[in-house]
């Protein structure tokens, strides 16, 4: 696959579920076209072939949770012209960042018999806490069409066009009736960034914030509204402590409601 | 609470694994520092001295994520959404096992069209996951390519067929679940919204194509050449009186185990070994066992549809297959079974009155076991009266197969020592791929001290 003229794409994994990089393979109709436009130089989930760096574009999935990974991400940054963090783990620390609110050692003891076999950092942190990130693509998982948009933008030297507005805008665009106003279902849509296509409200459930905080979210106001719907403080804490628990607006809001 | 997992005891070598007789031989090792075409981060280490295999380690260095720890204190209704995030390849499996376990704890049974829809959703995941593994992850080993994209240059039709099958599986998950990865529509008790008959109809059209493509997949799979390799495994799978197992059944084994799911922990234990962040499972006092397509097939051949049985026989398989490399054919047979089953469910579907049955939490322990594409997936939860999870246990298929994979390599390598190292390494990787290991799942959750061999 060594076409020197094609940009080299690399996919890297840290602590994660593999779902975001799977989104690339889930572009079934576009996969072979993507493979024609870029040189897939490192993508272990799909190929045993490895082309050495430097890479034109690195997609990084997962959060940093171990001392080894905290070093590895610097090597990847040095070998990459552009680095894009993909998914909630890479952009906010992921669901595993729930341990950031507790004693990590205690957490480990619940799962593992021998702590001396383990080597880990106390916190699960996003890629941008460690190295400069050129672009963050949100989502748990990312939206594969947004991923294609990022690749496309990169190939044409422009900024990716992904909205920072809330899920509410997507609901309006889809013509979905507001579940919170219409049915009194608690929904995180007003403070959550768009990108999924407002799937949950279209299935009759409230948004649970897979895409993290929107720009300038008013979380306090939403919490008030939820309280009026009868949601208790401990459930508010749980709601803001999901896959983007460690994103600052959500972290602060959850801490407000913690006893 | 005390950790119930065992500390690993150093393995006792049996006579079939002689060590060190040929001390004159020079030492060499096969190291695959980052296993490709698996989900997650793993490495393979095989140490050879002369004509003897000295050590085999499937190293799993996926960083730990501690799901079982942070499930404590969460509401039972959150478990399907949270556990889905264990794995991007089989989120439905985690959602199904968690729902079944929690419904078991709360004394609720989901039946009728809702149960059928869950089966349909699982069919979607099986089709998507099996097509991914057969065509994109495993076939390149057999045909000598680094990956499916290179393979597509010479076998465009084959790869296109695989991608299209995968897409059809994903379409089922996306329609029923809301999206392919981490579906949003699964809840304890059923769904948030159920589809109309009309919404399902277009799936039936594409599934008819998929059925033919799956038959073709079995035929094509049978034309590949498979290394001669068999072992006397203990296979473990669910078994249901009326159907090929997805969501329900008793746990049975090829050596006579037959138990209800809630007895799982009486028979199976997990060990924490230093070279892996996945806990290795064994049958108490007996050792390694085998879960996944081959186990399901061997224990449930009679429950396959006549079409699937016939396709298997034409592909040269009997009712029992002990060659793990032929799991590629067995996976194709299951792909066919899943396409047929999906079509049957859609044809018989009547929209239920409510999308979910009400579930009232109670202080109890619930057990659930379902057949993920890669095999038995066990979840157990203890709840308080308000539905808060007090503790959780999750045992994914790859953790259960890990020891069997290592044992395979102990036996696979010695007769092939004459091969050039790169060829032997390739075949070892292929032997690991037989299990479609999902390392993201099996890592409960560490980074270990790697043992550096000289």
Question: What would you say this structure looks like, in words?
Answer:
The complex is a heterodimer of chains A (259) and B (454). By secondary structure, chain A is an alpha/beta fold. Chain A has 2 domains: 148 residues, NADH:ubiquinone oxidoreductase-like, 20kDa subunit (Rossmann fold, 3-Layer(aba) Sandwich); 90 residues, no CATH class. Chain A has 12 helices and 5 strands. Chain A has a 5-stranded parallel beta sheet with strand order 2-1-3-4-5, with helices on both faces. In chain A, helix 3 links the parallel strand 3 and strand 4. Chain A starts with 7 loop residues before the first strand and ends with a helix. The model of chain A has no long low-confidence stretch (mean pLDDT 92). With 454 residues, chain B is α+β, with helices and mostly antiparallel strands. Chain B has a single domain, classed as Orthogonal Bundle (Cytochrome-c3 Hydrogenase, chain B), CATH 1.10.645. In chain B, the strands form 5 sheets. A 3-stranded mixed beta sheet of chain B has the order 1-10-11. Chain B has a 3-stranded antiparallel beta sheet with strand order 2-3-4, with helices on one face. In chain B, strands 7-8-9 form a 3-stranded antiparallel beta sheet. In chain B, helix 10 packs antiparallel against helix 11. The radius of gyration of chain B is 22 Å and the shape is globular. At the A-B interface, helix 1, helix 2, helix 3, helix 5 and helix 9 of A face strand 1, helix 1, helix 4, helix 5 and helix 6 of B.
